[in-house]
Amino acid sequence: MADAYFFLFFLLPLLLLVVLYFLVKPRPVKIPIKNRHVFITGGSSGIGLSLAHRAAAEGARVSILARSLGKLEEARNAIRLVTGIEVAVFAADVRDFEAVKRAVDEAGPIDVLLLNHGVFVALELEKMELSEIKFTMDVNLMGTLNLIKAALPAMKNRKDPLPASIALVSSQAGQAGIYGYVAYSASKFGLRGLAEALQQEVIADNIHVSLIFPPDTDTPGLAEENRRKPELTKIIAASSGCMTAEKVAQKALDGIKSGSFIVSCNLEGIALSLATAGLSPQRSFLMAFVEVVAAGILRIVALGMQWTWYGSIEKYHSQRKGKCCTKGY
Fold this sequence. Notes:
It catalyses: sphinganine + NADP(+) = 3-oxosphinganine + NADPH + H(+). This protein is α/β, with parallel strands linked by helices. Helices cover 58% and strands 12% of the residues. The protein has one domain: Rossmann fold, CATH 3.40.50. The mean pLDDT is 91.
């Protein structure tokens, strides 16, 4: 019996760790930020502005892009006031490839492309206008493709031999579909497929892709989102909590520097990432070990989460029907 326990709890895990050490690809990498060009979209407020502050403070040459030149100037002044560092600003709509290309060319070769832009409309699909759906997809998905396509040639031909990075800010709604997030989740799930395929295309050029999954974040946009957010969406999304933009930026930049493909920002995010690891790249053999060992348990946890969510949906609709019947009576 003792031999069986020794094999099960020591030799088998040790053997698995050895196998995973040689199995995981791409291999671990460190991506330096200091004295390198970090280009951040959606950089005039929220997570993007916090990322710009942190990158500048760590000695990076920072460029930020957003639609509003006025907000960009305010962001530049705020960063200068705190860090004493001047950042470059570029006004462009990410949906416009030619405008994006001009901004990227003017900014110069990019070492870290941080795609943080995004729009969000929380509403049931039936109630959304087609224009809102198209706007969400064009900004969140096509805008990301526009930036990558514009920046990639120079990133591939850079003279700097150090590893480069392309980081995409997704959302926990890009890991699990949530009531009221049909268009938003579709655009954010799309980023995952983009990132997984892109990593295979650029790995030979020493470019490393990161996919960041923040929860609800306390930004100027969140208050606006909450005005239209369906009640059921608030109930379900509340389980993941809310983070400050500064904390998300810290987690994101740390993940980028460590070359992580999946970057989670809180405990719920780590659980979601483990549960949805699938065919995503994993550089750390230790994290790969956790993914393998925890897979079955996390599937049970995921089923429990679905049970809770669908329970909330059933309860909500039952209460609404009850109120309707009372009014009818």
